Amino acid sequence: MGSLSGILQRPLIAAAAVGFASFSSDFSLILPSHQSQSQSQSNHSSSDLSTSTTTLSSDISLSKLAASLSFISRIQVPVPTINLPIPNSHCNSLYSSVASSPALLKLYHSAHLAKAPNPAACKHDIISSSTSVPDVSYTWHLPEPNALDVSRTSDCSSAKMRTVVVLLGWLGAKQKHLKRYADWYTSQGFHVITFTLPMADILKYQPGGKVEDHIDLLVTHLADWLEEEQGKNLLFHTFSNTGWLTYGVMLEKFQKHDPSVMGRIRGCVVDSAPVAAPDPQVWASGFSAALLKKHSVATKGTTDTSELGMDALVDSKEVVAPKPAVTEAALLLVLEKFFEVVLNLPTVNRRLSDVLGLLSARQPSCPQLYIYSSADRVIPAGSVESFIKQQRRAGHEVRACNFVSTPHVDHFRNDPKLYTSELTHFLEDCVLTCCKQSR
């Protein structure tokens, strides 16, 4: 099959002229210079380390902390320099001590990319949860220091330290968009990997191309981490159809190369997905939302008429759903017609059917949490609820939460209290049961 961008070019010219003229600045790809970024990181690192004089308190064992992070020496990521900002506030003294520790710095600098062909060309990094996040394919976030139990006396803390949460981004998501979720997980004591696929690579998708290369590297990275020792586990958190399909491809690769990994997956959180079959309307809505971003109707939730001061005009509450602008309606129409053709191409249909079939019938036996909304303009709530029923019939432990009025992949920002509450209860009740027992 030719590249997706080549197929897209001709049928979308008319829609692009109408729909994107006023939004052209949103679609430029910013590619920062790797050399200048490395030089900047090196300068900051020298400055931060030279000014830091705080030492770790005598009651904390650096050797135990180093041992708990020993897997870093085999992480498949190049780390030419390390920038660990040292806060000056007294309340962050532990963080300062740990970050300035020679033992921990040695672990960072020992990281290498053993199996990648050209480390200088790789777009992966390892950072602390407070470091600014570049636009890369995947990034490793360390647990926050105040969430670490370096004495390893807490079973719950140890279980979290042995678990990596893999966040798989939505179409058009960048590392900065996933940082909000990563920060929450690292504050709970988890390691986190945030994974995104560049929009340009998706539009140029070809079998065996860059998209699959990115996923292969991540799968290899996780497999190597799991091989370090027994007791290490994975938790997946997917966003929209792109994250969901990425999860399916990863499961496929795990089953093919090392089926035992499937038993190390302790849970899966599914945000704003899935649709169990290729649907042109869903794909059109997803690409439209990714291209138009904040200008898309998909970013708008629903509103009760009572909230609009219309109680006197109606006898009961009604839900008011925003309508797409003329330009977006035109784009949606073109994209839907386009995907009606593309999704029925034999190679595309076969590939999607394989992945979606695996996700429907051969998921790991781990618990599942589905977070969705009746107001989602990309993924219909009915599709999610139908899939949930199917998984329960198959014997899976499934939880679900309908946020009712929040937009697509925007539930955390709109209602962080409910979102984190659902995650906490899911993790304690289904994934890390020792945490609930120790309370």
From TrEMBL:
InterPro entries: AB_hydrolase_fold, DUF829_TMEM53. It is found in: Nucleus outer membrane. One of its GO terms (cellular component) is nuclear outer membrane. It is a single-pass membrane protein. Pfam families: DUF829. GO terms for molecular function: hydrolase activity. The keyword Ligase does not apply. The keyword Transmembrane applies. Keywords: Hydrolase, Membrane, Nucleus, Transmembrane, Transmembrane helix. Belongs to the TMEM53 family. This is Putative alpha/Beta hydrolase. It comes from Rosa chinensis (China rose).
